[in-house]
Recover the amino acids of this structure.
């Protein structure tokens, strides 16, 4: 079997703890499915700022570039929040997306049975919710020119939102393809009644839609989408949108499932390369205590197997193992009703690895 | 008593129907409270496009400019959705905001007792929710330079987001003042970890916060705010944010109350001038049937009385009359459990006018 190279950037807070369990599960799948991985670790985020003076050291970038996939824990924490821009973990995150050409972020928002009641939405509204947000990740206002200048009314700040038709087309095509493998419904979200970039976005969607005749497309204005996610979450299948809107809507969508601590994500570029990470953050408040929930990271591995490597069988097995362990009533503190009975991070990782 | 001039722009869809009831209520308050209004009507939105070839005719603008306050119904509808930019109702809306200097949009999101169950949120989460979004309305990406150009990767679209410190300061100060009259909590929402305009915004909030020592300030990133509105809506008091984020978050906040059809809004400039309108749209599907709910528009009059004219007593009376009529079980179709028993628009208006 071919050896696959995995760049591991555990990052800050609970990152190293949850990533360790994901690797444990990967190693178990090596034995069971005859897979072979080579792991190379890199510093990233706050820990890289502390040790190397930059959130994204060149060495880490190279580890990622020679890998087939990247497994990321989480970055950031209060310690670095007041740093100057160059010395902030987020800057590393934007840098790695751009440098690795990860133009697409897939964020499935699903409801876990055991967390049904954790949502603030009524169960009957949530029923059947299973959507995925496809967010453009390397363009728009995140990466356009930014500067300050003196104007007639004092200091001015400027951000520029730019999209070219090629960028829009590649992300929209990807979203159509994702929709084709799901319930074949695509909601394209923009603000075409105000923004020029949104008008280009909408034109592009309309131009290429005929190439995907089996997919039903609707255009939804971003403000309306923020409402409809609350009103009829289960009616969405795939949502595709630009970087800034995607940041907001994917978090709203994740939160309304009540399952945010269990959700995984994939950031993809051209070809099969991808970066996989849990949606939850670095949770500095519980870092180092061995109580974090590793499931979102373990499920990110399942995404990696499916999307980067085509290891469908092993991906299915991981998802089944997680379900089985949860169905048997095993819980980490964040999802436990009785905290006293809660498992540690490594206990949960062991259970899932053994259930494979 | 001094005569106050009201510009009435009923607009499209159900606009004329709900505005008529609001005027009915205003006339009743003239008798009861010794107020005196002079109404001048102007064409606006789709109807102005049809009759005058522009969504915001010069004449309408002048009616607004010589008025003390503007009462707006709603604009837009499918008929004009595919028009070119200059011939779209939204363009008129952006134009009127800019021309009248309405830099601040206040959108209270409250829960009406009779609509508690209409929310998709669990009642225990919604309990006590009473917040107001203060949205900057004449700056940011809405009004910055927009254009197309040819680039290395094909056609490009550009939107520019600009804020100067004066614009930020005036809206933030207003939000602090709103907070001082409420529960004294201000959440300032930005994306300071990515945007330069957000960094200017945050610096400005921090600089002027000491002038309002009684107000507790928190900075919330926009993606996090979209989540926290779902998780802990009742913990928010006043939310202040820039134009684009405010568009999204105010709609999310309104929807989560379940009361969106009953919510009113105010757009204010320097001085006491203001434009008042219901949050709901033109509802073309039920236009002309006499079944629309006029309550949001009637409550917009209460906001006008309080914020523009200082008619606190009459404002209280309107709000009390609405409550009394609802408590007695009267409902229009949108809020009725039994549609067969639903009142017409004019019946609801009459009841409220008589209850004053
Ligand atoms: C940390 C921040 C820059 C980042 C973003 O806005 O993209 C985060 O919110 C995310 O969604 O991954
Ligand atoms: C119609 C549109 C231009 C407008 C806006 O985005 O401001 C609307 O959504 C609103 O919130 O009043």
């Amino acid at each position: 079997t071919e050896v696959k190279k995995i760049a591991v950037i555990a990052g800050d807070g609970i990152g190293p703890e949850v990533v360790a369990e994901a690797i444990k599960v990967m190693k178990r799948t090596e034995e069971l499915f005859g897979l072979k991985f080579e792991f190379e670790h890199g510093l990233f985020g706050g820990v890289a700022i502390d040790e190397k003076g930059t959130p994204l050291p060149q060495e880490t970038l190279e580890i990622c570039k020679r890998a087939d996939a990247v497994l990321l824990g989480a970055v950031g924490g209060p310690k670095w929040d007041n740093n100057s821009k160059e010395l902030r973990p987020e800057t590393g995150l934007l840098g790695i997306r751009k440098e690795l050409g990860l133009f697409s972020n897939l964020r499935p928002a699903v409801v876990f049975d055991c967390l049904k009641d954790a949502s603030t939405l009524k169960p009957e509204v949530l029923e059947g919710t299973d959507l995925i947000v496809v967010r453009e990740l390397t363009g728009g206002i995140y990466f356009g020119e930014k500067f300050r200048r003196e104007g007639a009314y004092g200091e001015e700040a400027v951000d520029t939102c730019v999209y070219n038709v090629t960028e829009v087309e590649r992300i929209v095509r990807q979203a159509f393809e994702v929709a084709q493998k799901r319930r074949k419904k695509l909601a394209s979200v923009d603000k075409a009644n105000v923004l020029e970039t949104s008008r280009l976005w909408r034109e592009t969607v309309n131009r290429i839609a005929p190439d995907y005749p089996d997919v039903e497309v609707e255009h939804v204005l971003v403000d309306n989408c923020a409402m409809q996610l609350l009103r009829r979450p289960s009616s969405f299948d795939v949502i595709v949108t630009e970087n800034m809107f995607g940041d907001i809507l994917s978090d709203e969508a994740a939160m309304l499932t009540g399952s945010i601590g269990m959700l995984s994500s994939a950031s993809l570029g051209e070809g099969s390369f991808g970066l996989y990470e849990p949606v939850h953050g670095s949770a500095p408040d519980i870092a180092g205590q061995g109580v974090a929930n590793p499931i979102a990271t373990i499920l990110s591995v399942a995404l990696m197997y499916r999307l980067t490597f085509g290891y469908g069988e092993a991906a299915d097995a991981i998802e089944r193992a997680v379900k089985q362990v949860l169905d048997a009533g095993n819980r980490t503190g964040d999802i436990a009703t009785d905290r006293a009975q809660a498992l540690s991070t490594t206990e949960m990782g062991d259970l899932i690895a053994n259930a494979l």
Notes: The longest strand of chain B covers residues 154-164. Chain B is about 40% helix and 20% strand. The two ends of chain B are 20 Å apart (CA to CA). Chain B has a mean pLDDT of 96.
